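Tutorial handout. Part one gives the primary structure; part two gives the three-dimensional structure as tokens.
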Amino acid sequence: MMRASDPLFQKAYSCASGLGSIGSLTDLARRPSMPGEAILRRLIALHADFPVLRHGTFGRKYQIDIEAAEAFVLRLAECRGADPEARHALIRQIGLEMVAAREGQPDGK
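Part two.
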């Protein structure tokens, strides 16, 4: 009898279910353009729709649909904004507006 942890079972399951390759958090972090494991764990915690098949615990690895997870992370990066300079300019502008608003108050606070 095959176990769920058996690589042959995982390959058969992924083919039958339409999933891509199944791997661990380390496998995903090793792919090009993917963040490290710590950031991936944070993304998994923040996004309930992250394509995790099994969450990792002490002694058990995460099981992740690698292709779906990679596409998910890349979509998040696109949504965040590709232009960091524009983001920094916006932050500076907001800071200047806060300073101007503070200076316009009668007591200076």
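Part three, for discussion. The first strand starts at residue 22 and ends at 23. The mean pLDDT is 77.
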